[in-house]
Design goal:
By secondary structure, the chain is of the alpha/beta class. It has helices at 6-13, 17-24, 32-45, 51-57, 74-88, 103-110, 130-134, 160-173, 192-206, 224-236, 249-261, 295-314, 339-342, and strands spanning 63-68, 93-98, 120-123, 142-145, 154-157, 179-182, 216-217, 243-246, 271-275, 289-293, 328-330, 333-336. The termini are far apart.
Length: 347
């Protein structure tokens, strides 16, 4: 049986092919009654939009790439779900690539993987430098996530320094004075961990608490075992913190395990707060206080920016107006207080 075409839908619905096209593209100037009739015809005939043909007529493939360091880090998995959902609403398909925080892989992604099968890239870089990003002539449109900001690229992030300062202030407000930063790094760098460390140190300074370099607990990666090892090592070496600021929830969940194994009560002896608001933190014992970035907003803004850049890149000269200069978008975050700092969840 032949695949139904748009003219078959128009004939079945008793409308013009142009009207069917308007309904498919969700144009506003179609009556509710006509829209319903056309949709019923589409459903009855099993008509499917030829998205590939539509995109190719515009010089596009309809495929975008999301490049993240590690897919098994829950934050990136949850972010990917939001990006896919946002892209689907715009008839875009998402190719997901794991870079492993490897510079060669990130450079390959930045170059469109050496082909033309992706229209644009949403990239969360960890290994690239500003110099790597500076000259992207001939590369696909790109939106950057995270801290690495290049003046010539669109960029979406939360204010990580402000968020860490807010979280640390909360711990200080609970009367905690010996606050260790799990995953903390020398704050002179450009990465997310460095930005969060700057916020942590700023809050300590505001409260008149001297910064102890030994309060930064380095980690090899930002996973649960790394958090558990860092905290266990600090406790074994005699550290007696009354609070932990963990630079992501994975580190915090590992820290909770180490504290439990050392007979340390949370939050009575040590308050713990993380970053990212991943699902596991809502079911840990105790539940995990955290800084929650608006992941849905990060995805929405990133896909919007990328789609506009793709339209600019493929449209005839002068056909697209509006945004020209690269955009630096900061999306919201909020502090979610649960049992690991409060003894109960605050709503």
């Amino acid at each position: 049986m032949a695949r139904p075409r748009i003219k078959d839908v128009a004939r079945h619905a008793g409308v013009s092919e142009k009207t069917v096209s308007n309904v498919i593209n969700d144009y506003a100037h179609v009556s509710d009654r006509t829209r319903q009739v056309v949709r019923e015809a589409i459903e009855h005939l099993g008509y499917r939009v030829n998205l590939a043909g539509r995109h190719l007529r515009k010089g596009r493939t309809g495929i975008i790439a999301l490049v993240v360091p590690e897919l098994d880090i829950p934050y990136f998995a949850e972010l990917a779900r939001h990006v896919i959902r946002e892209a689907e609403q715009r008839s875009l398909t998402v190719l997901i690539h794991q870079s492993g925080a490897d510079r060669a892989h990130e450079l390959a992604a930045l170059a469109g993987f050496g082909s033309t099968f992706v229209d644009g890239i949403i990239l969360s870089p960890l290994a690239l430098t500003a110099d790597d990003l500076r000259d992207r002539t001939g590369f696909p449109p790109t939106v950057l996530l995270g801290e690495l900001l290049e003046e010539g690229a669109d960029h979406v992030a939360i204010d990580n320094e402000s968020a860490a300062r807010e979280a640390t202030r909360h711990l200080i407000g609970l009367g905690r004075r010996t606050i260790l930063a799990v995953g903390g790094r020398d704050d002179s760098g450009l990465g997310t961990a460095e930005a969060r460390t700057r916020g942590y140190r700023a809050a300590l300074a505001e409260a008149g608490i001297a910064h102890d370099p030994d309060a930064l607990l380095p980690v090899g990666s930002f996973r649960m075992p790394d958090g558990a090892r860092a905290v266990a090592r600090a406790l074994d070496e005699g550290a007696r913190p009354d609070a932990l600021l963990c630079l992501n929830d994975q580190l915090a969940l590992g820290a909770l395990r180490a504290l439990h194994e050392h007979g340390v009560r949370v939050p009575e002896d040590v308050a713990v707060i993380g970053f990212d608001d991943v699902e596991g933190g809502r079911y840990s014992v105790p539940t995990l206080s955290t800084v929650a970035p608006d992941k849905a907003a990060v995805a929405k803004v990133a896909v919007q920016l990328l789609q506009h850049r793709i339209e600019e890149a493929t449209a005839p000269d002068g056909a697209v107006s509006g945004m020209q200069a690269p955009q630096d978008r900061i999306v919201a975050h909020r502090l979610v207080l649960r049992e690991s700092t409060e003894g109960r969840e605050r709503r």
